[in-house]
From TrEMBL:
Name of this protein: N-acetylglucosamine-1-phosphotransferase subunit gamma
PROSITE patterns in alphabetical order: DMAP1_BIND, MRH
Superkingdom per UniProt: Eukaryota
Gene coding for it: Gnptg
A GO cellular-component term linked to this record: Golgi apparatus
Provenance organism: Cepphus grylle (Black guillemot)
Any coiled-coil regions, as ranges: 180-207
Amino acid sequence: GPAHLFRLAGKCFSFVESTYKYEFCPFHNVTQHEQTFRWNAYSGILGIWHEWEIENNTFVGMWMREGDSCETKSRQTKVHLVCGKSNKLAYVSEPSTCVYSLTFETPLVCHPHSLLVYPTLTEALQRKWDEAEQLLYDELITDQGYKKIMKGIFEEAGLLKATEEKEVENKKISLEFETLEKCNKEYKQLSKEIKELQDLLSQHGIAYKGISGE
């Protein structure tokens, strides 16, 4: 990520709301401690540093995932980075069960270019990005195709964790195609498979009611 944010590593920032104390340690974790005298006061991890949240090719926040278990899933926290006069945890909420939202203010993100992804990449990945922009401009790829390439670049840079989708990608046929050529190729393949299945049904004397060309 942005090198100038690494100076936050090794530091922790706390925020107290009601009976809870939240602690955010950038590039490490987020914890919650119940400030009561109850014998079973909760103290635990709301997420461990995992990946960046990237929107419009800009860093907007940090995802802390794989926290303590909560019913059927793990607790996770999204930390929003906003411009502020000093480094401080400013706001905490729980928009949905066991998914937390923290707002972290810091002067390190006040510059308009401070959270751009492009400058943080290697030259090789910047070239890949440039090529993707050119392909999109020349209308040789769709918006969907462009987003897929960008996601791949961010994953290769280690900014995003590769999703499990990649493992099952070969086992399923995507319903969205990056180019018309790929769509046509897939259509021909499916048409061929349908024809073979129709022939198989005919051999066994099974009537097939279908609209040809559908």
